[in-house]
Amino acid sequence: MASGNLPEDAVREILLMLPVKSLLRCKSVCKSWYTLITMPSFTTAHLNCNAALKRNHCILIKRFLKESNKSVLSFLSDEISSNDHVPPTEITIPHSNHFLQMMGSCNGLVCLTDHRDIILCNPSIRDFKVLPAPSFNYPRGLFSMTLGVGFGFDPLSNEYKVIRIAQLHEDDDDGAGYVFHSVIVEIFNLSTNSWREIDAVVPFVWFFPCSELLFNGHFHWWADDEDHGGESMLSFNISTEVFQQIRLPNVCAFPDGNERGFLVLNESIALLLFNPSEQTSFDIWLMTEYGVAESWTKQFTIGPLVQVKRPVLFWKHELLLEKANGQLVSCDLKFQRLKEFQVYGAQESFRAVAYSESLVSIKQAISISMMVV
């Protein structure tokens, strides 16, 4: 296609319909195309176009490969029912290890952390940024340890934010451990490339696989429920920077031997309770009205499933799961039939998010004004 034979507006509209991989190639066609594709306004328009047409959606998977001792990102196509081969592209993650977690994506960006290093990336364009470590002057003798990390986009301030919930503690004089002091909250603003501390009183945050979730402009963690002596879902509004504790169903009486997880199902937060064993069952609860504890309703039970250990992601009418041998499988929700994928990773290393590709670079992200997708 020779751009000289087409009006500039027509070229722009054609390019907006292309996937990111094709646009990256198109940047090499001519200087005018390069200039157009790299403009922040084009990136925003491409995001809006993807969202409006609900296209370029896929599954982004993180897993750890023992043979190469690295964590990689891979894409699974939109139609997972017909895709059982090894993902063709493996994107190596810098500073990665077996314990790396992946937070929910927004505008093509995802957050990765091992609760020490925090990485922002756009896997579509292979763009990575390791965030600087917080450099606050904590009271003398106190040290910080990350409990939970969150990530999201604030459409009101046009700002990407990383949230760090940390525990301050002092070393035990006997050298046998540490003494808990308090929980603090720190926020990284991508526009300023810096951390700031906010005044917030939050409960102790726990980690379970799939227990950290971005949904509906809020980030969520599994936490203590100090008021009711049990457990809660801790919610953080990305825009207002206000925390809310949402009580969980009474069946969540920790410790009860079960593991927990938060996923998204039918545009609602789903709570999964399960006990990994030779035959694992998953009790599925939905919060049918966001933020209302009384709306938790048990929907159904999946299983028992043989040698299936942990949930990974709800995708359309299927639940992606990790088997005991580190293989990725899916279970259709209607008939509960398992389908195996030739995709493997180290045990307990799988994480996945619903992903929509974008051209947003980490440097360019501060100038992107767009709804969260």
From TrEMBL:
This is F-box domain-containing protein. SMART domains: FBOX. Pfam families: F-box, FBA_1. It comes from the Eukaryota. CDD domains: F-box_AtFBW1-like. SUPFAM superfamilies: F-box domain. Residues 1-47 form the F-box domain. Signal peptide: none annotated.
